[in-house]
Structures are given as C-alpha cells and as structure tokens.
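Changelog-linked ticket: 2-oxoglutaric acid example.
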Amino acid sequence: MNEPSDPSLDRSGYAVVPDVVDGESLREFDAQVSSVLLQRAGARNLLSHDWCRHLALRLARHPAIADVLASDAVAISCTLFDKRAERNWSVGVHQDLSVPVARREDVPGWKGWTRKQGALFVQPPEDLLGRLLAVRVHLDECTADNGPLRVVPGTHRLGRITEEDALRLRDEIGEAVCVVPAGGALLMRPLLLHASGKAVSGRPRRVLHFVYGPPSPHESLSWPEDATSCAAFAEQSAALAD
Ligand SMILES: O=C(O)CCC(=O)C(=O)O
C-alpha cells in the first residue's frame, strides 16, 4: 500500500521542497561530488569540504527550511548517498538513531558507541533525536524507479521503534514514495521510519544528506570539529555581511 504524499513535516515527518538549488549550482556540486572518494553506498564527512559547508549554510537560510529549523541550528553531518546501476543498493526499514560526536564521554542515556569510516557515532536520548532535521538535497531527479526513499508517515512521533514494530507499522500504515526533482530537497525527521530499494531504471540517484541539530549535543559532549566550524562559518558570514 502506498500512502499519498503529505507535505506537513510536523504531522508526517517529511516534506518535499522543490528548487532549493539552481541549475548552475547543481553543475558545480556535480563537479565537487565527482572528486569525492566513495565507499560502499557513498561518502561520509563531507562537511570537511568548504563547498559543502557553504551549501549547509545556504540551505539553512532557504525560507522553507529556515521556517522549520531552530535559529541556532548547526549542520552536524553531510553524507553523500550515490546509487546507480554499477553501485546499486537497498536498505530495509529503520530509523536514524546515531549522531557523530568529537570524543567519547560516557553520559547516562547515550549508548551504542561505534565508529563508521573513522568517525565516532553514538545514539542520543530520544529528546535530542526529535530535535534533529535531515535535509536531503537531490543532485539527480529521483523518481519511483531510481531507488527513492520510502517513508512510513507519522512514525517520527513514536520514539524509538523495535525492528518487529517497524515492520508491523510499515504494513499497517503503508509507505509514501518520496519523489523529488533534481535541485529539490526532502526534509525528514530522522526518527521517521524509512527504507529504500535498488534503482531499476539505470539512472543515477545522488543525494547530499545533511543533518542539522542544536548548537551542542550535551554539556559533556561536542559535535565533530567540521560541524562546529560550519557554525563558526555561519557567524563569520553574518559578520562579513554586516
Ligand atoms: O538514501 C537512501 O536511499 C537511504 C538513506 C538511509 O537509509 C538513511 O539515511 O539512513
């Protein structure tokens, strides 16, 4: 069963915003992304690149995104998901429960420490997860047949969901297929159940997946250095504009 698309981020946990990036910028990001060294499904830690931090800032100022982001939000990560005929992959229904942090400090309620491609990740408490926003910028048109994200609307309001409940909710509620034009963005709450299948069209589907969060994860923890520099970069740009 496929649910019709509902554009309300609060109620559904996702929304599609067209035209966040114009054609010329898309061509520029095309060139930048093609020089990024890819791992299995893409590449993490893109905020270490200047062009990516600039884009994070631009997105945060886009009216439709600024409207739903806290004014002090910072970009904490950017991952490139690169799906294409020769690099095809799928992912089962899940929630995004981990955030990157600079260093390990054992804090009650923060668990599941792990390293991915050299970066340190941890699962924060639900209240922090609920304050995160993913902004997925589509570099290629994403249709029903090149591996779109499928989401289970409204499930971002249910907190952490067990694997068993995730499958049950997917079957009961149904999935919405997130079709997004090139240069558009899918806004998504990371607690929203989501999955994606392999592309069947042979056309590429590249996504820059930004995650924004509060200025600091916890008084004893900090975001990775690249994320902090993105916030500092925003302040510098504001100062230059004054
Ligand atoms: O981009 C996709 O198709 C999947 C992304 C995903 O599963 C995630 O962000 O956790």
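Closing comment: Example verified and attached. The helical segments are 9-12, 23-34, 50-61, 63-66, 126-129, 163-173, 225-241. The first helix runs from residue 9 to 12.
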